[in-house]
Design brief:
Helix content is about 10%, strand content about 35%. The mean pLDDT is about 85.
């Protein structure tokens, strides 16, 4: 309901990859009935390095009616209007590499220009997610992500 994405921990951006794809809805009903939904939908994959958690990835997943996704660094580094990564939708995978972009925990890292979902991936054993988090549950800004 907030449409903005914040950093789960301090991180230095290594690269960002735009992956074209479908724009299925990401609601629980669609997720239960569309095989490999999160791998089929359009994505922006952001790889970070963290002193605390090692390499981690935040995957911004596009969805029905999501006109575009934006990051706070994309406009500054490419001149893209308002940091928007897509459109244009060229149908081609695009990658950008970065060396000097660091964000602190809770900093805004991006936004959906409507709404969708974020998939977070961390190296095995680097953290234990909040035991109160449940599938299809809402996560609130400021809520603790990890017990470690």
């Amino acid at each position: 309901d907030y449409h903005r994405i914040h950093m789960p921990c301090d991180g230095k951006l290594k690269n960002m990859t735009y992956v074209p794809g479908d724009l299925f809805s990401v609601n629980p009903t669609t997720a239960a009935h569309v095989q490999s939904l999160f791998a089929r939908n359009e994505r922006v994959v952001c790889e970070f390095e963290s002193e605390q958690h090692g390499t981690f990835v935040m995957v911004l997943v596009g969805a029905t009616i999501v006109g575009s996704m934006a990051t706070v660094w994309h406009q500054e580094n490419t001149g893209a209007s308002n940091g928007i990564i897509n459109p244009p939708r060229s149908g081609q995978i695009r990658t950008w590499n970065y060396k000097n972009i660091s964000l602190k925990q809770a900093d805004e890292m991006g936004r959906f220009l409507l709404g969708s979902t974020v998939v977070m991936l961390f190296e095995k054993g680097t953290l234990q997610f909040n035991a109160n988090w449940q599938p299809a549950g809402k996560i609130k800004l400021g809520e603790m992500m990890s017990a470690k």
